[in-house]
Amino acid sequence: MNGAALQILRGEAQSLLTRIDRMDPFALRMPMVLAAAVPLRAQVAIERHLTGRRRNMRAMMDGYLKWLDSPEGKSASPAVAQRRFSFLRLRFIAILAQLDIFAIVFNQRSEHDTGIWLSGLDVFAADALSLPGGYYEAPPVICFLERSPGAAIRRARTRLPGGDDNPVAVIQIPRERMIGGGIASSLVHEVGHQGAALLDLVTPLRLELQKKAKTAGQDQIAWRCWDRWTSEIVADFWAVAKLGVTATAGLMTVVGLPRPFVFRVDFEDPHPAPWIRVMLSSAFGQVLYPHPQWQLLARTWEAYYPRQGLKPDQLRLFAMLEKTMPAFMAGLIKFRPKALRGKTLREVLAVPALQPGRLANLYQSWKQSPKEMLAASPTLVFASMGQAKMDGLLTAVEESRTLAEMLRHWALKSTLDTSSVCAGIPPPARDGKASFGRMPQHEWFSNKNRRIL
Question: What is the pTM of this model?
Fold first, then answer.
């Protein structure tokens, strides 16, 4: 009986080994044009991670087979041998789950146009995560599309299935938002979650809020809400700071749901009720980048979703949230986490170039000389496009066309820059001529038959 049982397990273990050996690196399996490739840092981190897991898994299976052939294994009961194998199989399944997480990202890079746009979004996400001042080392970021209505992030350095650390940040973006300003709002919100984790913002901030809640008297329930919603609110603040009005306008589209959902408050949900979330985003914008447009957005949102007809307890809660919102905002904006070395969130995140008037002037300048936009950072481009749309200077069709071209530009530029470094080719000369012959830089990235603006 023992011999037959152990022989079956030996066969299963050998079969599992063959499946481990079939887990080829993505570099050998994924068809995509070069410009659609996952950023090199992310590719290396993912391949090293999965190669290490495969190597460890193979060593564990080899060890199990040797144990089966040892005197201890031959004398073991079938139950003991099965138990040891079942744990190894579960570990293998966890590694496959990790592979599938990254395979989704790589597979979409082979889709025509979509793959290149995603590569451009990788560049955009990395720019939105960058923070001048050396406060942290940003991990690689990769993006993929999902059919769900909401965005999400699997942060770097969090746990993957099986308990291993995630080597990269993986951001899921709703496919229905490709391509427009709303994609920026969703993406930078998720980037904000990663940034908040790197700076360790949420836990210390929640502790401060919990202190306020204890002395809040009749407003205690509102402070409990702010405490519960802190993580999502910090991510929204990050988005407004990095994108200006583009973030709030995009948020209004994202959470523009049927009325019952907009006013729904779930004390177990880390997301604020959509109604107060948009009002808070507009208030953040007014503090960071003062302009009448923020009051206009707030009034528009109230016109979409008037509070008339709400139940008395709902009216009381939203009134309490509005009453305590200024104090909550002041605490957040003036918060000085240890990682920022004495600076406030506002001092570190606010970007002077995102003042509405400056963005409007920048857009007009780009209209006169579109090639200048190619040198701008992705966050500045999205912010300027959103501001121009808010000002009525840019239609949704023009916005979509321009952003699609800019995503292609960032994807190709990133690819050529990386390839140049790997090939040892010097960067373009200061006269604006490329090392690849004498072609001007802008000609590399934009077909002469395409219009940027």
Answer: 0.87
